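Quiz preparation item.
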């Protein structure tokens, strides 16, 4: 997958899936760890969840989105509070998962939207599943422009055996 030259709008209000995810997370007071695929230039997930003491690792293939993260951290006089939110500028499809910790939540809202092939997405699903903690949850978004294709891949993966439920436009697959 090549690096993405643009960024995911909207700039200030966040993507609807990110906003719903943050709303969902706020219902649970315990500290959680999140792997967030596609931060958006707004960085809503990272900015909001660090206020709750959560740990967020975001990954973006957009130089613009990563620059916005750098500006966010450098523009804050108390940048130490951002230590719970890290944003990697990387291609998730080639990022060695051995370098990553385990997470309570993984977001894949834009699965199948930016890959070179459907096989790349199938392999990505297989690679990220071991990153979920016991009782961890994968989140997808029914509003994605490639939701139909992503849903087919999820249903053919180990995630099809996980507990399925919905929260607004999000789909949740929880490891049992």
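Solution:
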């Amino acid at each position: 997958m090549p690096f993405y030259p643009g960024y995911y709008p909207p700039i200030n209000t966040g993507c609807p899936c990110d906003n719903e995810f943050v709303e969902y997370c706020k219902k649970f007071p315990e500290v959680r760890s999140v792997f967030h695929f596609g931060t958006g230039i707004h960085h809503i997930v990272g900015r909001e969840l660090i206020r709750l003491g959560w740990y967020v690792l975001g990954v973006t293939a957009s130089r613009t989105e990563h620059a916005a993260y750098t500006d966010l951290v450098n523009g804050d006089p108390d940048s130490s509070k951002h230590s719970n939110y890290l944003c990697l500028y990387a291609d998730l499809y080639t990022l060695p998962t051995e370098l990553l910790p385990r997470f309570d939540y993984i977001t894949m809202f834009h699965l199948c939207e930016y890959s070179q092939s459907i096989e790349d997405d199938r392999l990505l699903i297989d690679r990220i599943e071991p990153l979920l903690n016991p009782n961890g949850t994968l989140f997808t978004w029914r509003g994605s422009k490639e939701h139909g294709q992503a849903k087919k891949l999820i249903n053919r993966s180990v995630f099809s055996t996980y507990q399925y439920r919905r929260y607004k436009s999000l789909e949740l697959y929880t490891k049992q």
